[in-house]
């Protein structure tokens, strides 16, 4: 069964692999839901970047890729500016065998062991909420907790957000996503100001100084309580664990809450008491758990207005301008304008988009989700990724569309039922991150697959990246990504399979390239999607599932509309030849229009891929 459609929503690994250096050629709506929804607000943008900065196109080759001169995939180096050497297969096994503590367990332990002491801390002069990937005021768990504490104590709420260029670089966040986040941040700032709540923002060049800055600002403002929402990647879990402990030494209660995942990682166990590694049984357990714990879907209230004196006390913060995108994530002017047009930012736009989707398209979702030319998916991945919309809100609204959902999220009409299950994929991959943290450390879920011998062919990688492989559906998808920063999920699976199994290129190169391009980049979903497509992830199906790009094209773009939109060279090719112009008599027309012939023979490459996977996986089950 094919998986990860809407959920292939997609941060490459926190311990991400460096790509091999390529040559210059690589180059709708219920009352229950509405009461927690924000009022409409027109999207606004932060201050434009300085004109003196020369923008680098996100489609250009990464300038930080290195090669150690080796040709084997296990010799691809890590970016040593931030991380040590690649994790060994033996070290991965220590996590799997429970011999090494998981970062999520360490954070849970830190919060649990300090709970009593933190509960004794009395309110200070204010309460602080740290925004990260939760850029919304409504249905935000940690923000709601901070507001409630402040309101109860009669003190102000202060919020903060940091721009961290090194984190953007280390986590391979695309310039497009940074731009979307900063545009969303501007809306958060405006909404907070209407409530008299200040938003402190600054750029911190050295990523290791972020925790220190959190503590320094809390102390400077006289705050005794700081909240944030948990991010499930390794770096962030370790950072928050240290903050819980170091803040307590300073008499500050630092509290991190589950918000990004609907069901907290670790809450679901199989019959044997272990973490699920297969989606279908996990999803059944997820739906059953939500039925038994409906509070997990309940919306959190937006923050209450601050006391009137807050505007004077924090006047300097209110006067702060929003930070600009750092130099390493600047968008060219035309690119910035295109992204703003394609993807209006902020939670108000997110709610409007969700409502339109549920009212107009969700009923047909099951039947149309795989057809990229129809635009019938929600395209909410951008908002989930930046936190301008909670996954809970999406599930609640879909749930409200039918009374059958009240007791069972799997029992409603097909369209909403399937969509809820696809949104759940996002939770699934976060559960995977927490239980098998080495997937954040440059290793696949199946660590032994790092032994597969990958080819390193600059011309083939360039052809794939630029949408000039000679396989029209693949090329259409890659050009859509380059122009819009987004790709239909069916197409994501096809191009990912093509890279790994038709071109025999290391899947991690594609994973990283996606993150550098995607406006909706999300590490868990991107990593999970690539793992599925390359048969190295949490997938019970064996390695011999290889997408045939021609058959995928004929099935999911039968009339060629998707191809003709993104590959204008083939606009004049009629009938089924659009899928394979050189193999169906339209080669001369395609060649004249400048479209290349296929760069590989699918049948031949399929056999090579099968043999390479077989050799490694049979020897290392």
UniProtKB/TrEMBL annotation:
Alphabetically ordered keywords of this record:
Chromophore, FAD, Flavoprotein
Q: Name one GO molecular function term.
A: FAD binding
Keyword check for Flavoprotein: yes
PROSITE patterns to which the protein is assigned, alphabetical: DNA_PHOTOLYASES_1_2 (PS00691), PHR_CRY_ALPHA_BETA (PS51645)
Site (Electron transfer via tryptophanyl radical): which residue positions? 454, 507, 530
Question: What does the record note about the cofactor?
Answer: Binds 1 FAD per subunit.
Task: Report the leader peptide range.
Answer: none
The Photolyase/cryptochrome alpha/beta domain, residue ranges: 125-262
Q: Which domain of life is it from?
A: Eukaryota
Annotated GO biological processes are: circadian regulation of gene expression; entrainment of circadian clock by photoperiod; nucleobase-containing compound metabolic process; response to stress
Cofactor or coenzyme needed: FAD; (6R)-5,10-methylene-5,6,7,8-tetrahydrofolate
Q: Where is this region: Disordered?
A: 37-71
Claim: Ligase is one of the keywords in the record? no
UniProt-listed InterPro entries? Crypto/Photolyase_FAD-like_sf (IPR036134), Crypto/Photolyase_N_sf (IPR036155), Cryptochr/Photolyase_FAD-bd (IPR005101), Cryptochrome/DNA_photolyase_1 (IPR002081), DNA_photolyase_1_CS_C (IPR018394), DNA_photolyase_N (IPR006050), Rossmann-like_a/b/a_fold (IPR014729)
At which positions is FAD bound?
Answer: 365, 377-381, 419, 422-429, 520-522
Recorded GO CC terms: cytoplasm; nucleus
Any one Pfam family match given in the protein's UniProt record, by short name: FAD_binding_7
Q: Which family does it belong to?
A: Belongs to the DNA photolyase class-1 family.
Q: What is this protein called?
A: Photolyase/cryptochrome alpha/beta domain-containing protein
User: Upper lineage ranks?
Assistant: Eukaryota, Fungi, Dikarya, Ascomycota, Pezizomycotina
């Amino acid at each position: 069964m094919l998986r990860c459609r809407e959920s292939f929503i997609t941060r490459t690994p926190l311990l991400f692999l460096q790509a091999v250096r390529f040559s210059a050629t690589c180059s709708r709506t219920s009352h229950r839901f509405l009461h927690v929804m924000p009022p409409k607000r027109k999207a606004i943008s932060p201050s434009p970047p300085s004109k003196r900065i020369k923008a680098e196109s996100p489609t250009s080759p990464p300038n930080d890729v290195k090669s150690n001169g080796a040709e084997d995939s296990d010799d691809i180096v890590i970016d040593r500016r931030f991380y040590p050497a690649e994790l060994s297969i033996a070290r991965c096994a220590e996590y799997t065998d429970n011999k090494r503590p998981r970062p999520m367990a360490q954070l849970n332990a830190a919060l649990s062991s300090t709970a009593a002491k933190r509960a004794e801390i009395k309110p200070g002069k204010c309460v602080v909420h740290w925004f990260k990937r939760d850029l919304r005021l409504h249905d935000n768990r940690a923000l709601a907790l901070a507001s409630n504490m402040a309101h109860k104590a009669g003190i102000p709420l202060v919020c903060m957000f940091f721009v961290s260029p090194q984190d953007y670089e280390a986590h391979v966040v695309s310039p497009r996503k940074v731009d979307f986040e900063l545009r969303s941040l501007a809306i958060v700032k405006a909404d907070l100001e209407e409530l008299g709540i200040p938003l402190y923002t600054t750029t911190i060049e050295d990523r290791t100084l972020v925790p220190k800055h959190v503590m320094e600002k809390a102390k400077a403002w006289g705050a005794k309580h700081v909240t944030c929402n948990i991010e499930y990647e390794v770096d962030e879990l370790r950072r928050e664990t240290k903050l819980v402990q170091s803040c307590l030494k300073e008499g500050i209660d630092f509290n991190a809450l589950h918000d990004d995942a609907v069901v907290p990682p670790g809450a679901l166990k199989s019959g044997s008491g272990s973490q699920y590694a297969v989606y279908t049984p996990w999803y059944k357990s997820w739906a059953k758990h939500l039925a038994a714990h409906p509070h997990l879907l309940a919306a959190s209230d937006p923050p209450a207005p601050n006391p009137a004196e807050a505007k004077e006390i924090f006047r300097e913060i209110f006067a702060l301008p929003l930070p600009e995108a750092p130099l390493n994530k600047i968008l060219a002017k035309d690119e910035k304008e295109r992204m703003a047009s394609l993807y209006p930012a902020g939670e108000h736009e997110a709610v409007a988009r969700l409502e339109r989707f549920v009212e107009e398209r969700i009923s047909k979702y099951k039947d149309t989700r795989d057809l990229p030319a129809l635009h019938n998916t929600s395209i909410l991945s951008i908002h989930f990724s930046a936190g301008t919309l909670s996954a809970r809100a999406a599930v609640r609204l879909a749930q409200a569309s039918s009374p059958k959902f009240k007791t069972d999220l799997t029992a409603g009409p097909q369209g909403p039922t399937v969509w809820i299950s696809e949104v759940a994929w996002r939770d699934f991959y976060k559960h995977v991150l927490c239980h098998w943290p080495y997937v954040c450390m440059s290793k696949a879920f199946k660590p032994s697959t790092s032994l597969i011998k990958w080819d390193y062919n600059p011309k083939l990688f360039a052809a794939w990246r630029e949408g000039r492989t000679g396989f029209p559906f693949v090329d259409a998808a890659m050009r859509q990504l380059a122009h819009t920063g987004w790709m239909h999920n069916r197409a994501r699976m096809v191009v990912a399979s093509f890279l790994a199994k038709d071109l025999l290129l290391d899947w991690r190169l594609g994973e990283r390239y996606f993150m550098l391009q995607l406006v909706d980049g999300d590490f868990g979903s991107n990593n999970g999607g690539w793992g599925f497509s390359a048969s190295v992830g949490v997938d019970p199906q064996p390695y011999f599932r290889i997408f045939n790009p021609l058959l995928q094209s004929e099935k999911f773009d039968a009339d060629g509309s998707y191809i003709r939109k993104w590959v204008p060279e083939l606009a004049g090719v009629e009938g089924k030849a659009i899928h394979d112009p050189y193999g169906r008599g339209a080669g001369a027309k395609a060649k004249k229009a400048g479209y290349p012939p296929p760069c590989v023979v699918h049948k031949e490459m399929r056999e090579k891929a099968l043999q390479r996977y077989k050799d490694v996986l049979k020897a290392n089950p």
